[in-house]
Amino acid sequence: MTDITLKLNADPYILSALREDVTSEDVTTNAIMPKSTPGQVDLIAKEDGILCGLDVFKRVFTLLDFTTEFEVFVKDGEKIRSGQKIAEVLGDIRTLLIGERTALNYLQRMSGIATMTRRMVDLLEGSKTRLLDTRKTTPNMRLFEKYAVKVGGATNHRYNLTDGVLIKDNHIGAAGSISRAVKLARDYAPFVRKIEVETESIDQVQEALDAGADIIMLDNMDHETMKQAIALIDGRALTEISGNVSCENVDMIKDLGADFVSSGSLTHSAPILDLSLKNLHPTD
Questions:
Q1: Which of 43, 202, 243, 283 has the least CB density, counted as fewest CB within 10 Å?
Q2: What is the pTM of this model?
Q3: What is the separation of C-alpha 2 from the centre of its chain, rounded to a whole number of angstroms?
Q4: Number of domains making up the chain
Q5: 153 and 275 together in one domain
Q6: Residue 150 among the catalytic residues
Q7: In whole angstroms, what is the distance from residue 263 CA to residue 248 CA?
Q8: How far is 124 from 90, CA to CA, in rounded Å?
Q9: Can 101 be counted among the known catalytic residues?
Q10: Series of mean pLDDT values for 10-residue runs along the chain (284 residues)
Q11: CATH code (residue 247)
């Protein structure tokens, strides 16, 4: 993440996370470390994966104390191995102790998402289909989780409801039909916005095509129905496959030739990557 992105977008969330962990003081740290003492701690990988979130990790400590320093041996997006030393953090021991858990929470979560994303991207290798995330993110973590998806090698879908027009089943129900929903969206939305429609059957795919949808989502269809739908669309709209897509089944859709596949599991089901701060010691 750039410094501007951190300052404008990430800092409020990071500060909120720190306030959640320290409502008035860190009782343990203040008891055993009553005065400023310089120290160092090592960031160690405890399992293999893709590293992501180092800028956020560092930001936790520098928001507490801007004099905190780092020696980093790995970059975001690189593979790490269990037992590998990723970085050294140097600063006031009180800062290192207070920021430890919040910093690791971000780094472990983001690295877990990047690791799972890279695995799914690798499973799609050799096909034209690009992997997308969804809005199924942890509240107040979307900025970090979608960044992790990009680091893992996939592409972000819309960031939020302002980002694009996606007509889903309940929008269709509210409007009365796909055709009417697309017309209303076309009349309202700026001309630069593409209109995507979620479909669940061949009849709905045909209606979305007739209405002039730019992107047609094939939601929770079986393999044969998706194959028929993509043949029917025949390049007249972009295609996106969605619905319970995971590492266990994503390779089964490679042969369909869809433009995109979206997976909520990238952000709602990725396990953390186990990382640890170890070997804390005074350097004075």
A1: 283
A2: 0.95
A3: 17
A4: 2
A5: no
A6: no
A7: 12
A8: 41
A9: yes
A10: 86 97 96 96 98 98 97 98 98 98 98 98 96 97 98 97 95 97 93 93 98 97 96 97 93 94 97 98 92
A11: 3.20.20.70
Catalytic residue among 133, 219, 240, 259: 219
Q: What is the pLDDT of residue 284?
A: 80
Do residues 165 and 221 share a domain?
yes
Q: What is the pLDDT at residue 93?
A: 98
Confirm if 106 and 53 have CB atoms less than 8 A apart. Answer: yes
- Which structural domain, as residue segments, surrounds residue 46? 3-117+271-282
Statement to judge: residues 107 and 149 lie in one domain: no
Instruction: Respond yes or no: is residue 69 known to be catalytic.
Output: no
Both 174 and 92 in one domain: the answer is: no
CA dist 202 and 208 (Å) reads 10
Catalytic residue among 150, 168, 227, 254: 168
Q: Is 81 marked active-site?
A: no
Active-site position among 198, 207, 240, 259: 198
User: What is residue 164's DSSP assignment?
Assistant: -
How many residues in the chain? 284
Structure tokens at 83: 């037992």
